[in-house]
Design goal:
This protein is of the alpha/beta class. The chain contains six helices and nine strands.
Length: 204
């Protein structure tokens, strides 16, 4: 049974409100969600995806390979239902990967979560792309064909005319520069507070 959405705090709601006009009707823009650790970036992703699903469209969520844990998958399945979520990563058996690919292509699975190769998933009626931990080096494919999944996601969003949401507590320098310098179609969203009001660690 899908779980209930959590109540957003003011910063999370402001980020979601900035994104919403680009979800309906879909328009391309890149959003860099710069949020401190435990600031609730994932809940913003989930509620944005919920808005996309309500309009009958699909989403792709990229996470670093190391973050593709059963707990991460269960969180998405718990929110949207097991049948609506497909998982793609390189460690899967080819038979299982083919089954998930077919579920995505048929439109049965509306939310795709996976590592970098999931950016090529054959989703129907794409409405949103999310790249979590966008700074991670694991998004770079070192073997031929070489590509950077974040940049492919941005280009795919541009072609499809849909928003791309990049999230990180430590953004890559190139994306942060694009966001703060008012680069065309790039917008910075900031979460400065943790959801649970615990102090950040001291840094020297």
């Amino acid at each position: 049974i899908p779980s209930v959405s959590l109540t957003l705090n003011a910063e999370q709601q402001a980020a979601l409100d900035a994104l919403q006009p680009f979800l309906d009707p879909p328009q391309h823009r890149v959003f860099l969600l710069h949020g401190v650790t435990s600031s609730g970036k994932t809940e913003v992703y989930l509620q944005a995806i919920q808005s996309v699903l309500a309009r009958g469209k699909s989403s792709i969520v990229l996470v670093p390979e190391i973050a593709l844990t059963p707990q991460t998958i269960q969180r998405f399945q718990g929110r949207f239902g097991r049948e609506a979520v497909a998982v793609l990563h390189s460690g899967m058996l080819q038979s299982r990967r083919l089954l998930e690919w077919q579920r995505i292509r048929s439109g049965e699975a509306k939310v795709v979560i996976g590592a970098r190769s999931a950016v090529f998933a054959p989703v129907q009626d794409l409405g949103l792309l999310v790249v979590d931990e966008e700074h991670e080096s694991s998004y770079k494919q070192e073997d031929a064909p070489r590509y950077h999944a974040r940049e492919v996601a941005i280009r795919r969003g541009e072609i499809a005319g849909v928003p791309v949401l990049l999230g990180s507590a430590t953004p890559s320098l190139e994306m942060y520069q694009r966001a703060v310098s008012n680069a065309p179609n790039v917008q910075l969203l900031t979460l400065r507070q943790r959801v649970v009001q615990t102090p950040l660690p001291e840094v020297e």
